[in-house]
Amino acid sequence: MKKRKLSTKIIITILVVLIVFISVSIANSFYGNPISKAVAAKKINDYVISNYSDIDLVIEEPKYNFKFSEYYSNVYSEEDIDVHFLVKYSNRRIYDDYEIDVLSGWNTLRRMEAEYATLLTPLLKEEFVDSFNRVNVEYPKKINKADITKMLNTPLNVNDGEYKKLWLNLKHVDMTVESLSTNLKRLHNVLIKKGYYIDEYVLWIDGEGQYDYINVTGIKANMICDGLTELIQYSKDNREEAFQKYGINTHFK
């Protein structure tokens, strides 16, 4: 009996150890392990100090990306709003996204887009009281590095001359060609009146169903005229031709 009890205890102990080992292994595969994390933190900290000593940067605690088996830290400046990027450490290699995020202008453009949308949201909520859903602003054209350097960390200039595309999403309005035309004119006029100049528009109208919607894309500012309804109708009836001729596209779902 004693031998049987002893054997049972050994089996239970082995099972517990095995379960703990498996649990730790699974946790490490998703979150990394403390030792590797400490090594990554040291490597990342040394890397940032060595490569960006001229910038006052904050280095966040590393996190683990199990998909790519790498540790990464968010690094940012508390003074320069556009200076934020990731530093990654994996297999004794370390690299960062400073060039593609900061120097390329990616952070600057995304920040300007978000600020522009935030600026326009109260105005459009007031104009489209019961139908406004959301608005996005996009800078779709590439801006050269010289211009990005001038724009880095500077306040948003809504009339900086850069090409801008505005996406407006409405709901609870008629899902017709006439509705697209009427609301585009209304949008364009209120923006012009307030001193905002948009080069290109996209209007998206959601219906009641989950996949029930219509939209028109590629409407340039100079197309907002008395013939807009006919132009959108032409695009609806002749999508490929309209896209080739005018760069606009309509979709009725």
Structure, described:
The chain has 253 residues and is α+β, with helices and mostly antiparallel strands. The protein has two domains: 32-103; 106-252, no CATH class. The protein contains eight helices and ten strands. It has helices at residues 2-31, 34-51, 98-103, 106-127, 145-151, 177-193, 228-237, 239-246; strands spanning 58-59, 63-65, 70-76, 84-90, 93-96, 132-138, 165-171, 200-206, 213-220, 249-252. Strands 1, 2, 3, 4 and 5 form a five-stranded antiparallel sheet that branches. A five-stranded mixed sheet has the order 6-7-8-9-10. Strand 8 (200-206) and strand 9 (213-220) form a beta hairpin. The termini are far apart.
What's the oligomerization state?
single chain
Helicity, in percent?
40-55%
Instruction: Give the structural class.
Output: alpha+beta
* Number of separate domains: 2
Rg of Cα set: 27 Å
Distance between the termini: 75 Å
Mean pLDDT over the full residue set: 88
List the helices and strands and how they pair.
Blueprint: H1 2-31, H2 34-51, E1 58-59, E2 63-65, E3 70-76, E4 84-90, E5 93-96, H3 98-103, H4 106-127, E6 132-138, H5 145-151, E7 165-171, H6 177-193, E8 200-206, E9 213-220, H7 228-237, H8 239-246, E10 249-252
Parallel strand pairs: 7-8
Antiparallel strand pairs: 1-3, 2-3, 3-4, 4-5, 6-7, 8-9, 9-10
